[in-house]
Amino acid sequence: MNVFRAMDSGESIFRDEKALQPNFLPDELVHREREIAELAFCLKPASGGRSPQNVVIMGPPGTGKTTCAKSVLKQLSEYSQTPLPVYINCWETPTRFGILNAILGELGEMMPRRGIASDEIMSRLFSFAKNLKRIPVVVLDEADRLFSTEYANEQVLYDLARASEMHSVPLGIIAITNDTEILAKVDGRIRSSLAQKVIEFPKYTPTQLKDILSERAKIAFFPGAVDADVIGVCAAVGAKEGGDARLAITMLWMAGRQAEREGKRKVTVEHAKKVRDESIEKARGLYARKEETLEGIEREIVDLLKKGALESGELYAKLKMPERTVRYHLERLEKMGIIKSDETATKDGRKRKISLKKS
Ligand SMILES: Nc1ncnc2c1ncn2[C@@H]1O[C@H](COP(=O)(O)OP(=O)(O)O)[C@@H](O)[C@H]1O
Ligand SMILES: [Mg+2]
After folding, report:
1. Which residues sit with their C-beta closer than 6 Å to ligand 1?
2. In this structure, which residue's CA is closest to atom 16 in ligand 1?
3. What digits encode the pLDDT tens for the residues 296-309?
4. What is the domain count for the chain?
5. Which of 100, 144, 168, 246 could disulfide-pair with 62, CB 3.0 to 4.6 Å?
6. How far is the CA of 131 from the centre of ligand 1 (A)?
7. What residues sit around ligand 2, an ion, with C-beta below 5 angstroms?
8. Pick from 174, 200, 226: which residue ends a domain?
9. Strands 349-356 and 339-346
């Protein structure tokens, strides 16, 4: 950072607070050298115009799965123009139709109008991909989500696996999941094609978390703004709660915020301890993890509900949007397990109360 600008922000202990936020992509990923090398090895053929190996990445939350996959894809595109990375978060796009459509869009093909069947999109996708000079490498992050939807959206795994099996459509699939049972849920034939390689991401140890936090603290805070023991405390909590780097980083961030709120120039162990429970809830609650990916109206709904439960009518009024649109998004949020709605009968008829679901 520019040294003069750094002086301007004298009232803050943060040099670059963004570095502690969930979607920050660090340049260096320590302690994931083996996993990154394995993934790169599987994808390398795509740079030569051949089908890469399909990979399933498995591991508990906060073990660097998303970050490593994104980093490898980024490096792959820098290395060669032939692979065409397509990143899809299945929480954001949880349907077979949506996923096929998103891939089609990334390939530069016109999006079909609504109402067209998934099977038809699929054949369009494959005939288009066949003539393409590039190899799509599709990341399906949080793929477990596909198994928890009402319709058979996991069908898309079969679609893509089958396509990649037929050599006429060179295509790579990287499925990322927290749920180690996911492979047991798919048909054996597809399993072997989907999981040509399984890469497991282990939990981080306290020492590994310390290294990750130290790197991050250098970017995020001004020198000397964090007491030496703070990193150790955050690393210990992250390790105890599942070897979770997201949690450890969130705790460091919130400790910094706490220090700032108290008008202190230094983050201390007391600050870290004070934010411990809140950090666990923020980083670990399933709800928080899903919430990271929300955008637009769904983000707005969740923000409104954070202030308290609302009647559906009040929500429609506040959002100033057609009731039908709001209802559609409420349904989606409910399916994701982020909100719940309780219907009660009153003397004026039925009422729906919408609130956030804590998990
Ligand atoms: N090896 C690492 N080095 C630096 N930061 C990491 C590392 N592993 C994870 N992180 C950070 O921890 C957080 C969670 O990682 P993420 O890849 O989202 O985990 P997962 O997808 O396994 O739940 C992110 O903010 C990420 O930047
Ligand atoms: Mg992830």
Report:
1. 22, 24, 26, 29-32, 59, 61-67, 212, 245-246, 249
2. 64
3. 788 889 889 988 89
4. 3
5. 246
6. 36
7. 66
8. 200
9. antiparallel
Residue nearest to atom 8 of ligand 1 (CA): 64
**141 within domain boundaries:** yes
| 70 lies in some domain | yes
**Distance between CA atoms of 269 and 256, rounded to whole angstroms?**
11
Ligand 1 closest atom vs CA 69: 17
pLDDT confidence band for 285 (50 / 70 / 90)? low
Residue 189 amino acid letter: R
Q: Is residue 3 part of a domain?
A: no
Q: Which phi and psi (to 5°) does residue 87 adopt?
A: -105, 125
CA 263 to centroid of ligand 2, rounded, Å: 34
CATH of the domain at 160: 3.40.50.300
What's the rounded Cα separation, in Å, for the pair 341 and 327? Answer: 11
Pair (166, 51) in one structural domain? yes
As a three-state string, the secondary structure of 83-116 is EEEEEEECCCCCCHHHHHHHHHHHCCCCCCCCCC
Residues in the chain: 359
Digit-coded pLDDT (tens) for 8-46: 555 689 999 999 988 789 998 999 999 999 999 999 999
Distance CA 30, CA 85 (A): 23
Distance 290 CA to ligand 2 centre (A): 10
Which amino acid, 235?
A
The answer to whether the beta carbons of residues 85 and 107 sit under 8 Å apart is: no
Query: Domain boundary at 259, 287, 315, which?
Result: 287
Domain range for 282: 10-23+204-287
Ligand 1 centroid, distance to 269 Cα (angstroms): 23
